[in-house]
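Sample pair:
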Amino acid sequence: MTTTKHHSMNHEHHTDSNHSHKMPSEEHQHDDHMADMSMNSEHQHDDGMNMSGMSHHMHMSDDPGMASMDMSDMKRRFWWSFGVMIPIIIITPFMGMSLPWTLTFPGSIWLTALLSLLLYIVGTKPFFDGAKNELKAKKPAMMSLISMGLIVTFWYSIYALVVNQFFHGDHIMDFFWEFATLTVIMLLGHRIEMAATMKAGDATDKLRALLPNIAHVKHGDMVMDMPIDTLTNDMVIQVLAGEAFPADGTVISGQSQVDESLMTGESKLIDKAENSRVVGGTINGNGSLDVRLTQVGSQSFIGQLQSALSTSQDQKSRVETLADRVAAYLFWLALIFAFAALVIWTNITGFGAAINIAVTVLVIACPHALGLAVPLVIQRTKAIAAAQGILIKNRKALTAANHLKYALMDKTGTLTNGAFNVTRVVTHDFDETQAIAIASALDSQSTHPLAKSIVAYAKTRQAPKLQATHVENIAGYGVSGMVNGAHYLLVSARYLTENNIIFTPLDDNGSISYLLEHQHVIAGIVQGDTIKDTAPDFIKQLIKQGIQPILVTGDNHNAAHVVGNDLGITDIHAQVSPQEKIDLVAEYQKRGDVMMIGDGINDAPALAKANFSIAIGAGTQVAQASADAVLIANQLPKIINFLHLIKNATTKQTQNLWWGAGYNIIAIPLAAGILAPIGITLNPMVGAIVMSLSTIIVAFNAMTLKY
């Protein structure tokens, strides 16, 4: 992590902004905070990856035993195992039957055993580790089922090899072929699953990156730089212009304006003076402040956000999938039937024949098809969604998208464009086009979003291009300059009030700048955020799908209701803090599954808490790291299409699970000899053939998923 240096603020007439700056890359995370505060600032930050906030690290944190397995390690294990499998399936009979390509030779069985031992060492570790975790949690599932198949097929084959080579008697069939293919197919399935689950990084780490590395701690008249980990309550720190507050506290001296979009999602600058409360991670504006710390570390606002995120993400990662439940049932089904067959057939035919039947039951239970049933559908879903501009990050949350009842959504940057535009110009006995031209001249050298908006508006109105001279910043209020020999001011309402200038305040929710000629107000320029073109259609389609839209924003009640009413949203919650957003998600979850859509840091805990969440691609990396999917395409209705895709994918997963597990449900009892009294048994070779066909059907069915 690096610290960020910001230069002083310039044109302060833009301080009434409700704009929430949420940029796509956390490489400029601190710059985001200052975007609405500094008109000609230079930023230095060198933090993390780009690509819309998405890092290409993969994870399997929702799969027991796989959390420590990175993608490169899984890739190496797969290709080594695949290379070892090829000679095994060439020189080894399939269920005792030679296939057209089988090439046996003297000593080939020993080579098979040696290669299988190598495969056992290289390819089985991920599954054994996972099985240990499942059994330790007393929840055997897919890892346990796979491990049982691997152990039985390998060690029984070693037993068969020894008996066949050194003892005379009936030939015992080995399962080296089945062991090799099971290992590679399972590695393939989990590699697909890992590749289908993108990780944007740990959201809690990204929150931590909002804080500086050091704090300027005051000791009398001396100021010392100390790591923020050493800060304690009641310390007095100095926060310079443009710096982030390292912890929560109370101002004891100084005056400034602070960007608190971290908490509210709206980049309206807030005046801070003695006794004002400040929050760690927010950005100081144009003045220096001395702050007495009141909450540091885990007790601070950022610390509490980190705790809320961790709790919500852990809860979601523990959600049990349908595939896990099916695997758990098959695990116990196979064990029960194998044990029962061993006991019953020992009394009927003797232990030697009984152990063969029990092993056949366990081999039949090997989840070749089941292990690919879900990963192949996930991979197909991911590919289709990515082509439509949506990146899937958490596969487990996808099932929740089938039962959504409520859609909570942020306002700025989600339903609105998150960029200011001139919405209204009010003049007082002055030409409107001329007023815009003068304001544009004063703002022409600024890079502030509001200033750029005025300049852009002047171009669309084809206002004459004027030249401003002697342009000066009025710290904390606005800008002044000479245009065509006359002196003009472009300032905030606060400047007018404090200088006792008579004016009629404009009643509007946007950011208002007043243009003065020789201390007389001649125009008011209103700038505000605008609703996205796709938002009205999106809200209508949500309602049509039976999902109730709910607006949840940190902005004021007036601005929230304007947007809500325009979009037909009746359930509106304004001036909501991040913790209150979590509480709202939890409250609605009592009535049904909740989808959360947002793009800001203040949305992150709610995104993590919701049953299913989507971050807007132009938002912060903290939001993207917390969400289950990221909407890269700036088209809200694509979310509706995505929900349809998920429903289709869930249907495919269910079909595949029936193909993969349904075969076992029938084959396991038959292999155990449950119908032997009436002459019906399952030949192991027939069972293996059906198992192979089931795998092919599962793969084909997954590929037929359409958008």
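The chain is about 45% helix and 20% strand.
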